[in-house]
Design brief:
The protein has 283 residues and is of the alpha/beta class. It is built from 4 helices and 9 strands.
């Protein structure tokens, strides 16, 4: 094995005899096995891809599909290589499986082995135009429908080089939907069909009927309707007037006495001088 390592990634220890085990296990499906730069790459027949990956997963414990990458070699008859990067968690080892194809021949899907392959296959289809047979959700991600080749560049047979061209955004196959899913779409979103259907809540009770409007304002027809008592007698009214007059007559006299008392209190008091006592000798 070549000991030269061209990158700073941690080196993965090789498994002795793994190349022979893979060749014996896959048989005629193997086209080439290359062990270089500390990595093992296995090229297999395109039609046998799904069977090969299933064997590597179940028999050699490569449990995880980490990535699907596309490579373009314009000088080849089958210009595209699709690379599957596998990881064995139990063996701490990585393995690359490759197939070759072109613009017309599809590659078998592996979504039934790893559901994550659905998105990874869509990326390769979106950027390189590689078709995947059996993928039921092979939709564009970035480029537009009807696009052929790599975004903004393609290989020109006339100029024998890669040329850049602006992307054409044809809208013939697009269905725009400006309704937000949070506002409630009128169709079933992908995946919602798996969710349990919530029971319909009961309808709220109807509101009570409103009181009919009054045509005329409410008035009192007689004193008893207001809650007032019987009116006072006339004699009581006369006695009240007489008492008031007597009070007014008494009030001036009381005022005069009060004024006199105030004047007396305001007048200064005079001190009476005492006579000196006479002695007995004078008499």
């Amino acid at each position: 094995m070549n000991e030269a390592v061209l990158h700073s990634a941690p080196r993965i220890d090789a498994i002795d005899g793994l190349t022979d085990v893979i060749r014996d296990l896959l048989g005629r499906d193997v086209i080439e096995i290359v062990d270089a730069y500390g990595e093992l790459s296995v090229t297999v027949v395109r039609e046998a891809l799904a069977r090969t990956l299933e064997t590597l997963r179940d028999r050699l414990a490569y449990q995880q599909l980490m990535e699907i990458a596309g490579v373009d070699y314009p000088e080849r008859a089958e210009r595209f290589e699709v690379c599957y990067h596998l990881l064995s968690v139990t063996k701490n080892h990585r393995l690359r499986v490759k197939v070759q194809t072109d613009e017309d021949n599809p590659v078998p899907t592996v979504t039934h082995l790893w559901p994550v392959a659905g998105w990874l296959e869509r990326e390769v289809f979106d950027l390189y135009g590689v078709l995947f047979e059996g993928n039921t959700d092979l939709r564009r991600i970035l480029t537009d429908y009807g696009f052929r080749g790599h975004p903004e560049l393609r290989y020109s047979e006339e100029q024998k080089r890669v040329v850049y061209e602006p992307v054409r955004l044809a809208q013939d196959f697009r269905s725009f939907d400006f309704m937000s899913p949070w506002e409630g779409a009128k169709y079933v979103l992908p995946g919602d069909e798996k969710a349990p259907v919530a029971p319909t809540p009961p309808a709220p009770p109807p509101p009570p009927p409103a009181a009919p409007p009054t045509k005329t304002p409410k008035t009192t027809d007689k004193p008893s309707d207001t809650g007032a008592g019987e009116p006072a007698s006339g004699d009581a009214a006369k006695r009240s007037v007489a008492k008031k007059a007597d009070a007014e007559a008494v009030k001036p006299a009381r005022t005069k006495k009060a004024d006199a008392a105030s004047d007396a209190s305001a007048r200064p008091k005079t001190t009476r001088a005492r006579k000196p006592r006479s002695t007995g000798g004078d008499a």
